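Kindly inspect this chain:
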Amino acid sequence: MIERTIPLEAHDALVLTTAPLLMIGPYLLTFGPAIGLVSFFLGVLLMGVALSGSTRSLPVTTHESFDVILGVSIFAIGIAAGISGEPAVAAIFLVGFGAAHLALTAVTRYSARSA
């Protein structure tokens, strides 16, 4: 069983520091324009979810669901990029980022620790 040890606040802080990589990475690594735009958009969504968590404007269960959906989406888009003929670096970057986000989501504690 996976132990959820990372508090939501630390999760959000880590996402806020790494989501810009998803936004600028495609342009630094010269992805195609379409995959670059999709990657930028997903980075913006990740930052929005993380910021809404710090203001508590989003229910915690919804936050967790969005994190899972975004992680799976990034992973799947990376696979689709590889299949569609994008440079291998695009597929590796997106699949790796999606997998890392899913791993972070899996170990994040989305509720208060019981006493």
Q: What stands out?
A: The beta strands are 6-7, 108-109. The CA atoms of residues 2 and 107 lie 7 Å apart. The chain has one domain: 6-109.
